[in-house]
Input
Amino acid sequence: MRQYKYVLDEKDLPTHWYNIVADMKEPPPPYRHPVTLDLLKPEDLAPVFPQALIEQEASRERWIEIPDEVLDVLKMWRPSPLYRAYRWEKALDTPARIYYKWEGVSPPGSHKPNTAVAQAYYAKKEGLVGFATETGAGQWGSALCFATNLFGLKCKVFMVTISYHQKPYRRIAMETWGGEVVPSPSTETKVGRDILARDPETTGSLGIAISEALEYALTHEGYKYSLGSVVNFVLLHQTVIGLEARKQMEMAGDYPDIIIGCAGGGSNAAGLIYPFLKDRLTGEKPNLRAIFVESTACPSMTRGIYAYDWGDTAKTGPVVKMHTVGHSFIPAPVHAGGLRYHGMAPTICALLNQGEVEARAYHQNAVLEAAEGFARAEGFIVAPETAHAVRAAYDEAMACRESGESKVILFNASGHGHFDLGAYDAFHRRELPDYELEDERIREALKDLPRI
Amino acid sequence: MRQYKYVLDEKDLPTHWYNIVADMKEPPPPYRHPVTLDLLKPEDLAPVFPQALIEQEASRERWIEIPDEVLDVLKMWRPSPLYRAYRWEKALDTPARIYYKWEGVSPPGSHKPNTAVAQAYYAKKEGLVGFATETGAGQWGSALCFATNLFGLKCKVFMVTISYHQKPYRRIAMETWGGEVVPSPSTETKVGRDILARDPETTGSLGIAISEALEYALTHEGYKYSLGSVVNFVLLHQTVIGLEARKQMEMAGDYPDIIIGCAGGGSNAAGLIYPFLKDRLTGEKPNLRAIFVESTACPSMTRGIYAYDWGDTAKTGPVVKMHTVGHSFIPAPVHAGGLRYHGMAPTICALLNQGEVEARAYHQNAVLEAAEGFARAEGFIVAPETAHAVRAAYDEAMACRESGESKVILFNASGHGHFDLGAYDAFHRRELPDYELEDERIREALKDLPRI
Output
């Protein structure tokens, strides 16, 4: 009988994270200071991030040991299963062999806790009281509340006001894990109070929430700030996904021709892709294709430019060389809230610029259509973000049907959609808009880049 | 390092279901006809259930082979993991060793598909077009839509109107798997139309939805009716849970002293408990304790009587000897919608009557309090139904703390609470009512029992 999934024991968990910078032809250009635009010094980040994470951010070491205390928590759901999508292959009538890594088994339901747990561990070790962070729809906030609680830390979450009211379930989950969630803009920070004074009816934005979380961390004794994607150390922590998947693909007796992940800041995709991409960078698998999939609503890699830009709307965070549509760009309200970041992880952008990886973008009806087919075949209802990876896998599988090739396709099923079923409902009712984005809007947002 | 979870390979799936009737001192008394009250003949059930299930319902065979086609689908998520709750033990400061079986990993998020898949398989084999069923909050309906879709069958779900509007996410999940969901009472059945004519504003009830589903199945060519709990064949299909757990407890080097499950109709609890209870019934483990946990809002085992009663409100289904609070009993609107059935599985009731198992009931604040502690320690946010099992495990663990005994406690974590977070929110806000149930209300509902 067929084997559908490949499971590992806890003892098979990776012992080290993989740092792709060690194998890149050229590492990404250094960060710069948000005000002076000079090269950023590690001490500039000290008030913001735990020291161990600042060191990981700059590290060129290929392998970084995972602390036992972190592994001990990852075992709550890891190793996650790798599936062979036999039923979906049959439904698509494709000769492709499709595999997916299923990260929806974590308690918060996505890959996000892979880094949240590591960050909480280092914060605890440094003697911090807690973290402040922002969250849009709540995926990242719930992962951080889950993780901080396990290490006895506090978690202050600034949740974009419109999501706070429209998506109460994620808020309740954060509170169940002991987090303190406030709608942003709030009266708890100066930046929040100023904005409320100017516009009492505002529904908030991720840019404002980031600014509030940063201010809260900098003005509260024992607090630092936590970030859920984009930066090197976050992508590093996510490589457990790909390291496990390598062992599982070996069990299946296959090796991927094409690896796919959806990308907002890029962490889940990099987490699966980097441990395989190593083989391409070192010349072992020169034809391995890696595809980062973004939303057409926020097409940093496919329609943005590769330039230095601020990482946040309020220009308080580091200036980073990346593919960007501009830090002031406001994307259309697509359901994939996690794919609405104006930039992209700097290592991914450098690799894209070096021609080592590919990028593509999809409209939301195309991705929901693929995700619905996937749900009918494989059972799992994935998040709207994840649905972008599903669509790319679908297109590659259909290309195999055309060509008759039996390529091996592997994608990251980064999270479940249990809190996002409204997107599926809108799709069923044919009420899901595909927003067209004019070049002019991107050009406008790109006018305010730093002069470096 | 500690091992938190015990995982099995697909090849370790049970090949046979376990039928407890073979090992009972005395099997449960036979079913009776809803109108004549005579002993029910298999042919009476033929228009309602697939033939293979009618045979399983009456079977005295100890082991019944699981068809390969059913196993093939169960592999989408089974074997499910068994966890050692180290973190929760520490939080409770108990010497007890607590284990739980985690059924929340199935695509619909609970144990329900274990039987839905088997029922869909037999329906397909018999050449049926589809199933009709009822659902309250949507747990069962979503499992059946998931299963029927995989076998190319249709699924018509009558969903209690108030849930249809208040809990749209379950409805959307059912539609995503291709199910057709209508609010009940509907205009699609005579019983629905009659009720709507009398009371156009009614929000429906499970009793009405059952009657509509039965009528729909009996009046539509190629349709039969599907039931998600109570009857023998459903409990039989759920024994994969306990059969897996036996292997996993062996891997852990432990054997349970106390096994616990929440019970509405009783299927998830029996699924975990029966394969272990076999050891007690055959004299190998005479001291094994099995606890079925119900809601104080619908206390069939703890405050009802053991008597013949109709299985459904409209008196159209079989008359069954069981612990009942009366088929006309209307329970308070507790969040654990799955624990609001007026009766209980006849095998469980016979075992309770024979002194082989125990029963207890909890108010919802007590169960949510335990579930919140569990979520903080173990990460997983369980369904309000499951929270009843969590509370009983908590009480047994606390008893161990008192006595200093290190008993082994095993409970079934039957499903996640992702669609029921409103219960947690109400608990956080101290707005969760504990309904007191007067004896008089039960006495009243018990007046209309059949005279057998």
About this structure: Chain A has a mean pLDDT of 96. Chain A touches chain B through 47 residues (CB under 8 Å). The first strand of chain A starts at residue 5 and ends at 6.
